[in-house]
Amino acid sequence: MSPRPYRMERRREATDQNRDRILAAARELLASKEPSARFSLEEVAHRAGVARMTVYYQFGSLVGLLQGLCDSLAMAGGMSHLADAFRQPDALDAMDRFVAVFMDFWHSDRPVMRALGALAVLNPEVAAVLDERYDWRRKGVRMLLERVAQQTGRPTPKRMKEAADLLYLLTSFSTYDTLAVPGRSHAVVIRLVQRLARQILS
Amino acid sequence: MSPRPYRMERRREATDQNRDRILAAARELLASKEPSARFSLEEVAHRAGVARMTVYYQFGSLVGLLQGLCDSLAMAGGMSHLADAFRQPDALDAMDRFVAVFMDFWHSDRPVMRALGALAVLNPEVAAVLDERYDWRRKGVRMLLERVAQQTGRPTPKRMKEAADLLYLLTSFSTYDTLAVPGRSHAVVIRLVQRLARQILS
DNA sequence: TATTTGGTTGTACATTATGTACAACTTGGC
DNA sequence: GCCAAGTTGTACATAATGTACAACCAAATA
Fold first, then answer.
1. Cβ A172–B181 below 8 Å, yes or no?
2. What is the mean pLDDT of each run of 10 residues along chain A (202 residues)?
3. Which CATH number applies to A4-60?
4. Is 60 exceeded by the pLDDT of residue B190?
5. What residue spans of chain B are helical by DSSP H?
6. Segments making up each domain of chain A, as ranges
7. Across all strands, nucleotide nearest B60 (CA–C1')
8. Are A110 and A177 in contact (CB under 8 A)?
9. Do A189 and A100 meet the contact criterion of CB atoms below 8 Å apart?
10. Strand D nucleotides with an atom less than 7 Å from a protein beta carbon
11. In chain A, how long is the greatest CA-to-CA distance?
12. pTM score, two decimals?
Protein backbone atom coordinates (compact mmCIF):
# COMPACT_ATOMS: atom_id res chain seq x y z
CA MET A 1 0.00 0.00 0.00
CA SER A 2 1.21 3.44 -0.86
CA PRO A 3 2.21 5.80 1.96
CA ARG A 4 -0.55 8.00 3.13
CA PRO A 5 -0.23 11.73 2.40
CA TYR A 6 0.90 12.67 5.88
CA ARG A 7 1.28 16.28 6.79
CA MET A 8 3.06 15.87 10.08
CA GLU A 9 4.14 19.46 10.36
CA ARG A 10 4.46 19.51 14.12
CA ARG A 11 6.40 16.27 14.17
CA ARG A 12 8.69 17.55 11.45
CA GLU A 13 9.30 20.62 13.51
CA ALA A 14 10.08 18.63 16.61
CA THR A 15 12.52 16.30 14.89
CA ASP A 16 14.15 19.14 12.99
CA GLN A 17 14.66 20.88 16.28
CA ASN A 18 16.33 17.74 17.56
CA ARG A 19 18.57 17.56 14.52
CA ASP A 20 19.54 21.17 15.00
CA ARG A 21 20.34 20.63 18.65
CA ILE A 22 22.49 17.64 17.78
CA LEU A 23 24.35 19.61 15.13
CA ALA A 24 24.80 22.51 17.53
CA ALA A 25 26.21 20.18 20.15
CA ALA A 26 28.58 18.71 17.60
CA ARG A 27 29.73 22.20 16.63
CA GLU A 28 30.30 23.14 20.24
CA LEU A 29 32.24 19.99 20.95
CA LEU A 30 34.44 20.28 17.87
CA ALA A 31 35.14 23.90 18.69
CA SER A 32 35.86 23.28 22.35
CA LYS A 33 39.55 23.13 23.13
CA GLU A 34 39.26 21.67 26.62
CA PRO A 35 40.59 18.13 26.58
CA SER A 36 37.74 17.19 28.91
CA ALA A 37 35.35 17.61 26.02
CA ARG A 38 36.52 14.91 23.68
CA PHE A 39 34.54 14.68 20.49
CA SER A 40 32.49 11.52 20.50
CA LEU A 41 29.03 10.52 19.50
CA GLU A 42 28.30 9.82 23.13
CA GLU A 43 29.23 13.34 24.21
CA VAL A 44 27.36 14.93 21.32
CA ALA A 45 24.20 13.12 22.31
CA HIS A 46 24.64 14.05 25.94
CA ARG A 47 25.15 17.73 25.14
CA ALA A 48 22.16 17.76 22.85
CA GLY A 49 20.05 16.32 25.65
CA VAL A 50 19.22 13.32 23.54
CA ALA A 51 19.88 9.61 23.66
CA ARG A 52 22.80 8.18 21.75
CA MET A 53 20.44 6.08 19.71
CA THR A 54 18.67 9.19 18.47
CA VAL A 55 21.86 10.42 16.87
CA TYR A 56 22.22 7.10 15.11
CA TYR A 57 18.62 7.24 13.99
CA GLN A 58 19.03 10.73 12.58
CA PHE A 59 22.49 10.56 11.06
CA GLY A 60 23.32 6.89 10.79
CA SER A 61 26.90 7.17 12.00
CA LEU A 62 29.57 9.56 13.08
CA VAL A 63 30.53 10.25 9.49
CA GLY A 64 26.89 10.90 8.68
CA LEU A 65 26.78 13.42 11.48
CA LEU A 66 29.83 15.22 10.09
CA GLN A 67 28.21 15.20 6.68
CA GLY A 68 25.17 16.92 8.10
CA LEU A 69 27.46 19.33 9.89
CA CYS A 70 29.21 20.27 6.65
CA ASP A 71 25.94 21.07 4.97
CA SER A 72 24.82 23.08 7.95
CA LEU A 73 28.08 25.03 7.92
CA ALA A 74 27.80 25.79 4.22
CA MET A 75 24.32 27.19 4.80
CA ALA A 76 25.33 29.31 7.75
CA GLY A 77 28.70 30.36 6.34
CA GLY A 78 27.37 32.31 3.40
CA MET A 79 28.41 29.92 0.67
CA SER A 80 25.19 30.81 -1.08
CA HIS A 81 26.81 34.14 -1.95
CA LEU A 82 29.31 32.37 -4.14
CA ALA A 83 27.06 32.74 -7.15
CA ASP A 84 27.01 36.51 -6.64
CA ALA A 85 30.76 36.64 -7.09
CA PHE A 86 30.53 35.15 -10.55
CA ARG A 87 27.86 37.64 -11.55
CA GLN A 88 30.38 40.48 -11.38
CA PRO A 89 31.00 41.83 -14.88
CA ASP A 90 34.69 42.47 -14.26
CA ALA A 91 36.87 39.39 -13.74
CA LEU A 92 39.07 40.97 -11.08
CA ASP A 93 36.03 42.17 -9.17
CA ALA A 94 34.70 38.63 -9.35
CA MET A 95 37.97 37.38 -7.90
CA ASP A 96 37.75 39.86 -5.03
CA ARG A 97 34.26 38.68 -4.22
CA PHE A 98 35.35 35.07 -4.54
CA VAL A 99 38.12 35.64 -2.02
CA ALA A 100 35.78 37.45 0.34
CA VAL A 101 33.19 34.69 0.25
CA PHE A 102 35.71 32.08 1.30
CA MET A 103 37.30 34.22 3.96
CA ASP A 104 33.83 34.80 5.40
CA PHE A 105 33.17 31.09 5.23
CA TRP A 106 36.33 30.10 7.09
CA HIS A 107 35.65 32.87 9.56
CA SER A 108 32.10 31.80 10.27
CA ASP A 109 32.96 28.79 12.43
CA ARG A 110 36.70 28.74 12.50
CA PRO A 111 37.48 26.12 15.17
CA VAL A 112 35.01 23.72 13.60
CA MET A 113 36.56 24.23 10.17
CA ARG A 114 39.94 23.49 11.65
CA ALA A 115 38.75 20.29 13.32
CA LEU A 116 36.87 19.10 10.24
CA GLY A 117 39.95 19.55 8.09
CA ALA A 118 41.99 17.51 10.53
CA LEU A 119 39.39 14.76 10.70
CA ALA A 120 39.37 14.63 6.93
CA VAL A 121 43.11 14.06 6.82
CA LEU A 122 42.85 11.14 9.21
CA ASN A 123 39.64 9.59 7.90
CA PRO A 124 39.24 8.94 4.17
CA GLU A 125 35.47 8.81 4.52
CA VAL A 126 35.39 12.29 5.99
CA ALA A 127 37.84 13.41 3.34
CA ALA A 128 35.42 12.27 0.67
CA VAL A 129 32.63 14.26 2.30
CA LEU A 130 34.71 17.43 2.40
CA ASP A 131 36.10 16.98 -1.10
CA GLU A 132 32.63 16.61 -2.50
CA ARG A 133 31.37 19.69 -0.69
CA TYR A 134 34.36 21.97 -1.11
CA ASP A 135 35.01 21.19 -4.73
CA TRP A 136 33.37 24.51 -5.55
CA ARG A 137 36.61 26.19 -4.67
CA ARG A 138 38.66 24.20 -7.18
CA LYS A 139 36.14 24.76 -9.92
CA GLY A 140 35.73 28.42 -8.98
CA VAL A 141 39.43 29.09 -9.21
CA ARG A 142 39.57 27.56 -12.66
CA MET A 143 36.60 29.51 -13.92
CA LEU A 144 37.90 32.76 -12.50
CA LEU A 145 41.28 32.35 -14.13
CA GLU A 146 39.65 31.54 -17.44
CA ARG A 147 37.79 34.83 -17.27
CA VAL A 148 40.84 36.79 -16.22
CA ALA A 149 42.86 35.24 -19.02
CA GLN A 150 40.25 36.11 -21.61
CA GLN A 151 39.99 39.65 -20.32
CA THR A 152 43.70 40.40 -20.14
CA GLY A 153 45.13 38.19 -22.88
CA ARG A 154 45.78 34.54 -22.29
CA PRO A 155 49.05 33.73 -20.49
CA THR A 156 51.03 30.55 -21.04
CA PRO A 157 49.46 27.32 -19.74
CA LYS A 158 52.30 26.86 -17.28
CA ARG A 159 51.63 30.22 -15.69
CA MET A 160 47.94 29.36 -15.65
CA LYS A 161 48.53 26.21 -13.62
CA GLU A 162 50.79 28.10 -11.26
CA ALA A 163 48.26 30.88 -10.78
CA ALA A 164 45.51 28.36 -10.17
CA ASP A 165 47.47 26.56 -7.46
CA LEU A 166 48.43 29.83 -5.81
CA LEU A 167 44.89 31.14 -5.83
CA TYR A 168 43.76 27.81 -4.42
CA LEU A 169 46.34 28.19 -1.67
CA LEU A 170 45.28 31.77 -0.96
CA THR A 171 41.64 30.84 -0.54
CA SER A 172 42.38 27.82 1.66
CA PHE A 173 41.42 27.57 5.29
CA SER A 174 45.06 27.22 6.20
CA THR A 175 45.81 30.62 4.68
CA TYR A 176 42.95 32.23 6.53
CA ASP A 177 43.91 30.52 9.74
CA THR A 178 47.49 31.70 9.47
CA LEU A 179 46.72 35.30 8.57
CA ALA A 180 43.74 35.96 10.85
CA VAL A 181 45.63 36.67 14.05
CA PRO A 182 44.75 38.93 16.98
CA GLY A 183 45.38 42.50 15.92
CA ARG A 184 44.38 41.99 12.30
CA SER A 185 40.68 42.40 11.66
CA HIS A 186 38.68 40.18 9.37
CA ALA A 187 38.26 43.02 6.87
CA VAL A 188 42.00 43.57 6.78
CA VAL A 189 42.63 39.89 6.18
CA ILE A 190 40.26 39.96 3.23
CA ARG A 191 41.94 43.02 1.72
CA LEU A 192 45.36 41.46 2.25
CA VAL A 193 44.44 38.25 0.46
CA GLN A 194 42.72 40.17 -2.32
CA ARG A 195 45.89 42.18 -2.83
CA LEU A 196 47.98 39.02 -2.94
CA ALA A 197 45.59 37.44 -5.42
CA ARG A 198 45.99 40.39 -7.75
CA GLN A 199 49.75 40.25 -7.38
CA ILE A 200 49.68 36.67 -8.55
CA LEU A 201 48.20 37.69 -11.86
CA SER A 202 50.86 40.29 -12.59
CA MET B 1 74.84 2.04 46.27
CA SER B 2 75.86 3.88 43.15
CA PRO B 3 75.06 2.41 39.74
CA ARG B 4 77.79 0.28 38.33
CA PRO B 5 79.63 1.56 35.25
CA TYR B 6 77.86 -0.60 32.74
CA ARG B 7 78.94 -0.62 29.12
CA MET B 8 76.18 -2.67 27.54
CA GLU B 9 76.94 -1.80 23.98
CA ARG B 10 75.39 -4.84 22.43
CA ARG B 11 72.20 -4.46 24.43
CA ARG B 12 71.98 -0.80 23.50
CA GLU B 13 72.32 -1.72 19.88
CA ALA B 14 69.58 -4.30 20.12
CA THR B 15 67.12 -2.01 21.87
CA ASP B 16 67.93 0.89 19.59
CA GLN B 17 67.19 -1.36 16.68
CA ASN B 18 63.86 -2.15 18.26
CA ARG B 19 63.10 1.53 18.75
CA ASP B 20 63.95 2.21 15.13
CA ARG B 21 61.74 -0.60 13.93
CA ILE B 22 58.86 0.72 16.01
CA LEU B 23 59.34 4.24 14.66
CA ALA B 24 59.56 2.91 11.12
CA ALA B 25 56.34 0.98 11.60
CA ALA B 26 54.66 4.10 12.96
CA ARG B 27 55.84 6.08 9.92
CA GLU B 28 54.55 3.44 7.55
CA LEU B 29 51.20 3.29 9.26
CA LEU B 30 50.72 7.05 9.38
CA ALA B 31 51.70 7.30 5.73
CA SER B 32 49.49 4.44 4.60
CA LYS B 33 46.25 5.59 3.07
CA GLU B 34 44.47 2.24 3.10
CA PRO B 35 41.67 2.34 5.63
CA SER B 36 42.57 -1.22 6.58
CA ALA B 37 45.73 0.10 8.19
CA ARG B 38 44.31 2.18 10.99
CA PHE B 39 46.90 3.91 13.07
CA SER B 40 46.96 2.37 16.53
CA LEU B 41 49.54 1.34 19.03
CA GLU B 42 48.45 -2.24 18.50
CA GLU B 43 49.08 -2.11 14.77
CA VAL B 44 52.40 -0.31 15.20
CA ALA B 45 53.61 -3.04 17.52
CA HIS B 46 52.42 -5.76 15.19
CA ARG B 47 54.14 -4.20 12.18
CA ALA B 48 57.34 -3.74 14.12
CA GLY B 49 57.29 -7.42 15.06
CA VAL B 50 57.21 -6.52 18.70
CA ALA B 51 54.80 -6.92 21.60
CA ARG B 52 52.46 -4.09 22.47
CA MET B 53 54.03 -3.84 25.90
CA THR B 54 57.40 -3.15 24.35
CA VAL B 55 56.08 -0.01 22.73
CA TYR B 56 54.76 1.13 26.08
CA TYR B 57 58.07 0.33 27.71
CA GLN B 58 60.01 2.30 25.12
CA PHE B 59 57.75 5.29 24.57
CA GLY B 60 55.36 5.34 27.50
CA SER B 61 52.25 6.13 25.49
CA LEU B 62 50.95 6.92 22.07
CA VAL B 63 51.83 10.57 22.49
CA GLY B 64 55.33 9.56 23.60
CA LEU B 65 55.64 7.54 20.43
CA LEU B 66 54.65 10.52 18.30
CA GLN B 67 57.15 12.63 20.21
CA GLY B 68 59.89 10.18 19.31
CA LEU B 69 58.64 10.21 15.75
CA CYS B 70 58.93 14.00 15.54
CA ASP B 71 62.51 13.92 16.70
CA SER B 72 63.30 11.16 14.25
CA LEU B 73 61.73 13.13 11.41
CA ALA B 74 63.68 16.26 12.27
CA MET B 75 66.90 14.27 12.15
CA ALA B 76 66.09 12.60 8.86
CA GLY B 77 64.47 15.66 7.26
CA GLY B 78 67.58 17.81 7.20
CA MET B 79 66.55 20.26 9.89
CA SER B 80 70.17 20.28 10.95
CA HIS B 81 70.89 22.36 7.87
CA LEU B 82 68.83 25.19 9.29
CA ALA B 83 71.89 26.70 10.94
CA ASP B 84 73.62 26.85 7.56
CA ALA B 85 70.91 29.13 6.26
CA PHE B 86 71.60 31.71 8.91
CA ARG B 87 75.33 31.64 8.15
CA GLN B 88 74.69 33.19 4.75
CA PRO B 89 76.17 36.70 4.68
CA ASP B 90 73.36 38.11 2.56
CA ALA B 91 69.93 38.29 4.18
CA LEU B 92 68.02 37.38 1.04
CA ASP B 93 70.30 34.42 0.41
CA ALA B 94 69.63 33.34 3.97
CA MET B 95 65.92 33.54 3.29
CA ASP B 96 66.29 31.39 0.18
CA ARG B 97 68.13 28.76 2.16
CA PHE B 98 65.59 29.00 4.94
CA VAL B 99 62.77 28.34 2.50
CA ALA B 100 64.66 25.46 0.91
CA VAL B 101 65.35 23.78 4.25
CA PHE B 102 61.68 23.73 5.16
CA MET B 103 60.52 22.62 1.74
CA ASP B 104 63.01 19.75 1.98
CA PHE B 105 61.74 18.96 5.43
CA TRP B 106 58.07 18.80 4.42
CA HIS B 107 59.09 16.80 1.37
CA SER B 108 61.09 14.25 3.32
CA ASP B 109 58.11 12.35 4.74
CA ARG B 110 55.13 14.14 3.39
CA PRO B 111 52.24 11.84 4.31
CA VAL B 112 53.56 11.54 7.84
CA MET B 113 53.85 15.31 8.14
CA ARG B 114 50.29 15.61 6.99
CA ALA B 115 49.00 13.10 9.52
CA LEU B 116 51.00 14.58 12.38
CA GLY B 117 49.61 18.01 11.68
CA ALA B 118 46.10 16.64 11.74
CA LEU B 119 46.70 14.73 14.97
CA ALA B 120 48.02 17.91 16.52
CA VAL B 121 44.84 19.78 15.67
CA LEU B 122 42.71 17.14 17.34
CA ASN B 123 44.92 16.40 20.33
CA PRO B 124 46.30 19.24 22.46
CA GLU B 125 49.05 17.04 23.81
CA VAL B 126 50.31 16.32 20.32
CA ALA B 127 49.92 19.98 19.48
CA ALA B 128 52.23 20.87 22.36
CA VAL B 129 54.82 18.41 21.07
CA LEU B 130 54.73 19.88 17.56
CA ASP B 131 54.69 23.48 18.76
CA GLU B 132 57.74 22.87 20.87
CA ARG B 133 59.63 21.25 18.05
CA TYR B 134 58.56 23.45 15.17
CA ASP B 135 59.00 26.74 16.95
CA TRP B 136 62.24 27.16 15.04
CA ARG B 137 60.22 28.32 12.08
CA ARG B 138 58.51 31.13 13.99
CA LYS B 139 61.79 32.30 15.46
CA GLY B 140 63.59 31.89 12.16
CA VAL B 141 61.10 34.04 10.30
CA ARG B 142 61.49 36.81 12.87
CA MET B 143 65.26 36.71 12.76
CA LEU B 144 65.33 36.68 8.98
CA LEU B 145 63.08 39.68 8.69
CA GLU B 146 65.16 41.55 11.23
CA ARG B 147 68.19 41.01 9.05
CA VAL B 148 66.40 41.95 5.87
CA ALA B 149 65.07 45.08 7.50
CA GLN B 150 68.50 46.12 8.70
CA GLN B 151 70.00 45.45 5.31
CA THR B 152 67.43 47.30 3.23
CA GLY B 153 66.20 49.97 5.61
CA ARG B 154 63.62 49.20 8.26
CA PRO B 155 60.01 49.21 7.07
CA THR B 156 57.05 50.13 9.25
CA PRO B 157 56.21 47.72 12.08
CA LYS B 158 52.84 46.99 10.52
CA ARG B 159 54.46 45.83 7.31
CA MET B 160 56.91 43.81 9.39
CA LYS B 161 54.13 41.88 11.08
CA GLU B 162 52.44 41.30 7.76
CA ALA B 163 55.63 40.10 6.15
CA ALA B 164 56.31 37.78 9.08
CA ASP B 165 52.88 36.17 8.86
CA LEU B 166 53.16 35.78 5.11
CA LEU B 167 56.60 34.23 5.30
CA TYR B 168 55.30 31.93 8.00
CA LEU B 169 52.47 30.95 5.70
CA LEU B 170 54.82 30.40 2.77
CA THR B 171 57.08 28.06 4.73
CA SER B 172 54.18 26.07 6.20
CA PHE B 173 53.48 22.46 5.40
CA SER B 174 50.12 23.45 4.02
CA THR B 175 51.78 25.67 1.42
CA TYR B 176 54.16 22.93 0.41
CA ASP B 177 51.36 20.40 0.30
CA THR B 178 49.24 22.62 -1.91
CA LEU B 179 51.98 23.58 -4.36
CA ALA B 180 53.82 20.27 -4.69
CA VAL B 181 51.53 18.61 -7.20
CA PRO B 182 52.26 16.05 -9.92
CA GLY B 183 53.96 17.84 -12.79
CA ARG B 184 55.79 20.34 -10.61
CA SER B 185 59.15 19.09 -9.38
CA HIS B 186 60.45 19.66 -5.88
CA ALA B 187 63.09 22.04 -7.18
CA VAL B 188 60.48 24.09 -8.99
CA VAL B 189 58.35 24.32 -5.87
CA ILE B 190 61.33 25.65 -3.95
CA ARG B 191 62.09 28.27 -6.59
CA LEU B 192 58.44 29.27 -6.72
CA VAL B 193 58.20 29.80 -2.97
CA GLN B 194 61.53 31.64 -2.93
CA ARG B 195 60.24 33.98 -5.59
CA LEU B 196 57.05 34.60 -3.64
CA ALA B 197 59.03 35.26 -0.48
CA ARG B 198 61.06 37.92 -2.25
CA GLN B 199 57.90 39.46 -3.65
CA ILE B 200 56.60 39.84 -0.13
CA LEU B 201 59.49 42.07 0.78
CA SER B 202 58.99 44.45 -2.13
C1' DT C 1 80.13 -19.79 36.76
C1' DA C 2 76.59 -17.41 39.29
C1' DT C 3 74.09 -13.33 39.75
C1' DT C 4 72.25 -8.96 38.62
C1' DT C 5 69.88 -6.02 35.54
C1' DG C 6 67.59 -4.03 31.47
C1' DG C 7 64.56 -5.18 28.27
C1' DT C 8 60.75 -8.11 26.48
C1' DT C 9 56.54 -10.71 26.62
C1' DG C 10 51.94 -12.54 28.09
C1' DT C 11 47.92 -12.26 30.78
C1' DA C 12 44.44 -9.97 33.10
C1' DC C 13 41.70 -6.11 33.89
C1' DA C 14 39.48 -1.35 33.72
C1' DT C 15 37.76 2.07 30.72
C1' DT C 16 35.89 4.14 26.69
C1' DA C 17 34.23 4.38 22.02
C1' DT C 18 31.68 2.79 17.74
C1' DG C 19 28.16 0.25 15.88
C1' DT C 20 24.18 -3.23 15.62
C1' DA C 21 19.94 -5.47 17.18
C1' DC C 22 15.77 -5.34 19.27
C1' DA C 23 12.02 -4.35 22.15
C1' DA C 24 9.36 -0.81 24.55
C1' DC C 25 7.52 3.50 24.70
C1' DT C 26 5.58 8.20 23.28
C1' DT C 27 3.09 11.16 20.58
C1' DG C 28 1.41 13.36 16.41
C1' DG C 29 -1.56 12.27 12.55
C1' DC C 30 -5.36 9.90 10.54
C1' DG D 1 -8.81 4.38 18.82
C1' DC D 2 -5.25 2.99 15.75
C1' DC D 3 -0.99 3.56 13.11
C1' DA D 4 3.53 4.92 12.45
C1' DA D 5 7.51 7.95 12.99
C1' DG D 6 10.58 9.02 16.19
C1' DT D 7 12.81 8.22 20.71
C1' DT D 8 14.82 5.62 24.35
C1' DG D 9 17.00 1.76 27.06
C1' DT D 10 19.26 -2.52 27.25
C1' DA D 11 22.26 -5.87 25.62
C1' DC D 12 25.99 -7.26 22.96
C1' DA D 13 30.17 -7.42 19.81
C1' DT D 14 34.37 -5.28 18.75
C1' DA D 15 38.41 -2.61 19.24
C1' DA D 16 41.49 0.70 21.32
C1' DT D 17 44.24 2.84 25.27
C1' DG D 18 46.32 2.24 29.43
C1' DT D 19 47.86 -0.06 33.99
C1' DA D 20 49.50 -3.87 36.87
C1' DC D 21 52.09 -7.71 37.47
C1' DA D 22 54.56 -11.83 36.92
C1' DA D 23 57.56 -14.56 34.02
C1' DC D 24 61.25 -14.73 31.17
C1' DC D 25 65.61 -13.96 28.45
C1' DA D 26 70.14 -12.67 27.57
C1' DA D 27 73.81 -9.44 28.03
C1' DA D 28 76.80 -7.49 31.51
C1' DT D 29 79.15 -7.97 35.59
C1' DA D 30 81.41 -9.95 39.66
1. no
2. 52 89 95 81 94 95 93 94 96 97 97 94 89 89 94 85 97 98 98 96 84
3. 1.10.10
4. yes
5. 9-31, 41-48, 52-59, 62-76, 82-86, 91-108, 110-122, 124-133, 135-152, 157-170, 173-179, 186-200
6. 4-60, 74-201
7. D18
8. yes
9. no
10. 5-10, 15-21, 27-30
11. 66
12. 0.92
pLDDT, residue B5, reads: 47
Q: What is the tens place of the pLDDT at every residue in B139-176?
A: 999 999 999 999 988 888 888 999 999 999 999 999 99
Q: Does B74-201 match B4-60 at the fold level?
A: no
Q: Please say if the pLDDT value at position B2 is more than 60.
A: no
- Give the nucleotide nearest to A54 (CA→C1'): D7
Strand D proximal to B3 Cβ, under 7 A: no
Q: Residues near A38 by Cβ (< 8 Å), separated by ≥ 6?
A: none
Nearest C-alpha of chain A: how many angstroms from B152? Answer: 22
If one counts every other C-beta atom within 10 angstroms of the C-beta of residue B66, the result is: 23
Express as a percent the part of chain B with pLDDT over 90: 78
Beta-carbon count within 10 A of A182 CB: 5
Whether nucleic acid strand C comes within 7 Å of the CB of A62, the answer is yes
C-alpha A98/C-alpha B29 separation (Å) is 38
pLDDT, tens digit (0-9, with 9 covering 90-100), for B35-73: 667 899 999 999 999 999 999 999 999 999 999 999 999
Domain A74-201: give its CATH architecture: Orthogonal Bundle (1.10)
From the list A121, A169, A184, the residue facing B179 with the nearest CB is A169
